[in-house]
Write a structure and sequence with these properties.
It is a single chain. The chain is of the alpha+beta class. It has a domain at about 145-505: 7 Propeller (Methylamine Dehydrogenase, Chain H). Helices cover about 25% and strands about 30% of the residues. It contains 6 helices and 30 strands. It has helices spanning about 90-100, 100-125, 135-145, 350-355, 490-530, 540-594, and strands spanning about 60-65, 70-80, 150-155, 165-170, 175-180, 195-200, 210, 220-225, 230-235, 240-245, 255, 265-270, 280-285, 285-290, 300-305, 320-325, 330-335, 340-345, 355-360, 365-370, 380-385, 385-390, 400, 410-415, 420-425, 430-435, 445-450, 455-460, 465-470, 475-480. The strands form 8 sheets. Strands 3-30-29-28 form a 4-stranded antiparallel β-sheet, with no helix packed on it. Strands 4-5-6-7 form a 4-stranded antiparallel β-sheet, with no helix packed on it. The chain has a 4-stranded antiparallel β-sheet with strand order 8-9-10-11, with no helix packed on it. It starts with about 60 loop residues before the first strand and ends with a helix. About 25% of the residues are buried.
């Protein structure tokens, strides 16, 4: 009979927690020494003894016995008379005979209860577990100051250096970095400039792993998130180029010039689809084109970025940035060179309904546009000298923004690991890391990457490696500290409450401004009706021009008057100083005569 017991519960569910308590020392046994035994004590010197080789014996019983003659304990070990591996049938017969005995069964049951009790106590809680170890490590990480270090610099191997206009990480672990090189200054371009772009191995900055040979210099490129062997690029002449790295450096498909963009394709992104072959691109020609890489002869769909929703190419806004979130497959956003962000819906029935709303974000082109990966309703924009955070519910103004920097901002992106951290690069070669939960006015970390302007920025999926592309053709790879690449405690909830609070504040301010504008409009209409103005409540163009001229000349006269008063005041102070000086000169001779 075989006795088997299987535990199928978790370790913490066995029994209850063992409780320990302190108690004073307690004497259990007191054995006094026997002085008479000391007379029989004989001291022996240590000696070595050689033992002959013998057969392996199986252990049978262990017992402890006390010998008074020596005053010490001796371990007696009894071995079976039979060597291992001999007469196994006799052992099996003896085991069956013992298992049939009633005394054996009852003794096993009694011993099993005590053993089960001990197992339940030991498995209920691990008495050696250190509960505060993780918290101590988190506190140590939080106390460390934010930092970043340069790992590698990938330089353009050509003699005539070009700008790194686009970067893309390999989706399978980020072991490779694809970089697009082109010269965006039309006047400085020459025939000697190379059109090649490169794929770099992160650990080998000496030479690129692969060369991409497009028909025209690449402005942007993007790896396929579903297939790490394929990537798509937008060329300077507006063409879309498709590569399969398993087939070499030559493109697999290239769109025709007639059906492509008329300006450089500044941004291209893959779209979530069942086939994994759909993408869309944007250009300053005012168009957004959708493509299927299996057939690039013509785009599958087209959208003209006309804010009036009439589809007129002459009124279209040039696009320089794109945003697509896989969790919202029907929505996408476009950043234009006029500083306007356009929110679009691809699945709308008519072209006029595809443009949902617009956001007046910056004074210049919107170079970067990205949704927060943890809060998709909030998105980040970069243009002119600031970075702004927006909410889809508010169109009038952003909910958070940085103060105006001394240098122009060229690119930015959110951290894929920490929801409150985003990175930005500037034209003075500086990389800024912002933690909006820590402080909003200044960056948490500001690092001088190089002496050249930085144009592009891309983060690895684990948030630890940052790649920055410069104007001189250098792609700098940096590693940020663990504090900036590890999710902090309660970070999501704190940031959600911050976004909600700032959104409510902007809504209240927007409602207040709307009320003020309505009051001013009603007051102006009432004054015009009293003065016998026009019946429709609007001033004529001549009246508006006359009013503007009057306001302008009044400001000029006030400035002249202010300068005149300032000059008179300065002249009066000079006259008083001269009078004091003359008086002192006249008093000095008299004092000398005395």
């Amino acid at each position: 009979m075989e006795i088997v017991h299987v535990y199928s519960k978790r370790r913490a569910e066995f029994g209850r927690q063992c409780l320990f308590s302190d108690r004073p020392a307690e004497l259990l046994v007191d054995v006094p020494p026997d002085p008479s035994l000391a007379q029989h004590f004989i001291q022996k010197n240590p000696r070595d003894q050689a033992l002959p080789a013998c057969l392996d014996m199986s252990e049978h019983q262990v017992s402890m016995t006390s010998t008074r003659g020596r005053g010490s304990n001796r371990l007696l070990v009894q071995f079976a008379k039979r060597p291992c591996g001999i007469a196994t049938n006799a052992v099996i017969r003896f085991r069956k005979k013992v298992e049939k005995d009633e005394i054996y069964v009852t003794s096993v049951v009694q011993l099993g209860q005590g053993m089960e009790h001990c197992i339940r106590q030991n498995n209920a809680v691990d008495i050696f577990q250190e509960y505060l170890e993780e918290e101590e490590e988190e506190e140590e990480e939080n106390q460390v100051a934010p930092s970043a270090k340069t790992i590698n610099v990938f330089r353009d191997p050509n003699e005539l250096k070009r700008t790194v206009t686009g970067l893309s990480w390999h989706p399978d672990g980020g072991r490779k970095l694809a970089a697009a090189y082109s010269c965006l200054e039309f006047q400085k371009s020459s025939r000697d400039l190379s059109v090649d772009s490169y794929i770099w191995d992160v650990e080998n900055p000496n030479r690129p792993e692969m060369t991409l040979r497009p028909p025209s210099p690449l402005v942007c490129l993007d790896y396929n998130p579903k297939d790490p062997h394929t990537l798509l690029g937008g060329a300077y002449n507006g063409q879309i180029v498709y590569w399969d790295t398993r087939r070499g450096s030559t493109p697999v498909e290239v769109s025709s010039v007639e059906t492509s963009h008329r300006d450089p394709a500044y941004k291209i992104l893959w779209v979530q689809s069942k086939t994994g072959t759909d993408a869309f691109s944007a250009s300053t020609d005012g168009q957004v084109l959708w493509w299927d890489v299996r057939r690039l002869s013509e785009p599958t769909d087209r959208l003209v970025l006309d804010p009036s929703r009439e589809g007129n190419p002459d009124w279209a806004l040039g696009a320089v940035s794109l945003e697509f979130e896989s969790t919202m497959p029907t929505k996408f956003m476009v950043g234009t060179e006029q500083g306007v962000v356009i929110s679009c819906n691809r699945k709308a029935k008519t072209p006029a309904e595809k443009i949902v709303c617009t956001y007046d974000s910056h004074h210049g082109p919107v170079y970067a546009l990205q949704r927060n990966p943890f809060f998709p309703k909030n998105f980040l924009t970069v243009g002119d000298w600031t970075a702004r955070i927006w909410s889809e519910d508010i169109r009038e103004s952003s909910i958070m923004w940085t103060r105006y920097q001394m240098s122009y901002l060229s690119d930015a992106c959110w951290s894929p690991v920490r929801p409150s951290v985003f990175f930005s690069v500037k034209m003075d070669g500086t990389l800024d890391v912002w933690d909006i939960l820590f402080k909003q006015n200044d960056p948490t970390l500001s690092l001088k990457v190089c002496d050249e302007p930085l144009y592009s920025l891309r983060l690895q999926d684990n948030g630890r490696l940052v790649a920055c592309g410069s104007q001189g053709g250098g792609a700098t790879l940096l590693e940020v500290c663990a504090g900036l690449s590890t999710l902090q405690k309660n970070e999501k909830s704190l940031l959600a409450s911050m976004f909600e609070r700032e959104t409510k504040r902007e809504k209240i301010l927007e409602a207040r401004q709307r009320e003020i504008r309505l009051k001013e409009r009603s007051r102006s209409e009432q004054s015009r009706s009293e003065d016998g103005g026009r019946e429709d409540g609007e001033d004529s163009p001549d009246q508006l021009i006359a009013r503007a001229e009057k306001d302008f000349f009044s400001v000029v006269e006030a400035e002249k008057r202010r300068r005149r008063d300032r000059e008179e005041q300065s002249n009066g102070e000079e006259n008083t100083c001269e009078d004091k000086r003359d008086k002192e000169e006249t008093e000095e001779p008299g004092a000398s005569q005395e």
